[in-house]
Write a structure and sequence with these properties.
The chain is α+β, with helices and mostly antiparallel strands. The chain has twelve helices and 18 strands.
Length: 381
């Protein structure tokens, strides 16, 4: 596949206009960490934004920043850390050079910090976009409060490059937490794990993250305490875990959080993402045990990832269908999986007909000519 690497929004515009005139299709890419997601749909050429890798502004006093879409995520975080600030996102592969800010936004990819800070769209204040006709548009603002115009930034979060090209992103920042503590509650009883997570999720105080882990017949609930009094927060977490019958320890290391993010991805086997309810966490863990999968999840949010071990393609397809049948009507999306598996299943899963029709109308409005990955998204959009 032919690959182009423009260095400005104007160059992106020219390439998109050329593609539209030629009737060509375009696949937008960043660091390439999610090119294996979605159905195996081909495009005529790849538009890489990795050459657009500048931090254009870092407004420390306003806690905002303007980034070109190709900025490596880890480099932006290092820049913010120098000012004791952070972008409250922690996606898989974000700590290494691969993931870019544009790719993280386009895939709405996030890790354990979602518990406190919300999804990717809550961290994005504005975007500069190149649409299918080559027009360059800006939406949003450089300030936290803004009510003018349509919120295209939120629309493009999770659009997977099917509506246009994200060229720049304006993000909100937060003070970086100091001296965080990780509280771990362990058990081989999925009921106790779910109970510990539920007890803590209903406490009226803020922690940075609340996650669950399950693998090979045992699991953990993890809480990240920070803020002005992390030791007091940690004590509340430990008390809740003890009440649920979990074995409790408190640690200052963060290696477990790296594990949580890493288990959202798979180099072999398959990973499915489940969007459910926090109250149904026990059901998800029971299913993981039944199909021989490991699991991680945002215990207070209801989003979980089941990682299926490597197996022949037909076995993986069967396991995916078993998971979907057991959890219907919850959305179950296939993320990492061999191409042969992704060709045999509906990657995005069954969706409400009204939602699919709305997505088709949005696609028609922004990319009626089908320049950006037609047939890739939910419902064949």
């Amino acid at each position: 596949m032919d690959k182009r690497s423009p260095s400005s929004g104007e160059e992106i515009s020219e390439l998109v206009q050329d593609a539209a005139r030629a009737g060509s299709t375009v696949r937008v890419s960043g660091g390439g960490t999610k090119l294996g997601w979605g159905p195996p749909v081909e495009a005529d050429f790849e538009l890489s934004i990795t050459a657009m890798d500048e931090v254009l502004e870092h407004n420390e006093g306003d806690l905002t920043a303007v980034l070109q879409a190709g900025v490596p995520f880890h480099r932006a975080q290092a820049r913010f850390a120098d000012a004791s600030q952070m972008l409250a996102l922690d996606p898989p592969l974000g700590e290494r050079a691969e993931a870019t800010i544009g790719g993280v936004v386009a895939a709405a990819d996030q890790g354990p910090l979602r518990h406190r800070y919300g999804p990717v769209r809550d961290q994005v204040l504005g975007v500069t976009l190149v649409l299918a006709d080559g027009s360059v548009v800006r939406s949003g603002s450089k300030v936290i409060k803004n009510v003018a115009g349509y919120d295209l930034a939120k629309l493009f979060c999770g659009s997977f490059g099917t509506l246009g090209v994200i060229a720049e992103v304006v993000v909100r920042l937060h003070p970086a937490p100091q001296d965080p503590l990780t509280v771990v509650g362990r058990s081989d009883d999925v009921h106790a794990l779910a109970a510990g997570a539920a007890l803590l999720a209903h406490r009226l105080f803020e922690i940075e993250a609340l996650d669950v882990f399950w693998d090979h017949g045992s699991g953990e609930v993890l809480a990240l305490a920070a803020g002005g009094a992390p030791d007091k927060q940690a004590a509340v977490c430990a008390a809740a875990f003890s009440e649920a019958g979990l074995e409790v320890s408190t640690e200052e290391i963060r290696d477990r959080w790296a594990r949580q993010r890493a288990m959202q991805r798979a180099k072999d086997g398959a990973v499915v993402r489940i969007s459910g309810l926090p109250a149904q966490l026990e059901r998800v863990l029971e299913l993981a045990r039944a199909v021989g999968a490991s699991a991680v999840g945002r215990a207070g949010v209801g989003v979980s990832w089941l990682k299926l071990p490597n197996a022949p393609g037909d076995e993986l397809v069967g396991s995916i269908e078993e998971i979907r049948s057991a959890l219907s009507p919850w959305p179950v999306a296939v993320l990492d999986a061999p191409e042969a598996v992704r060709a045999k299943v509906d990657v995005w899963g069954q969706q409400d007909k009204g939602v699919v029709e709305l997505m088709r109308r949005v696609k028609q409005r922004f990319d009626g000519a089908g320049v950006f990955k037609p047939g890739y998204f939910v419902g064949g959009v």
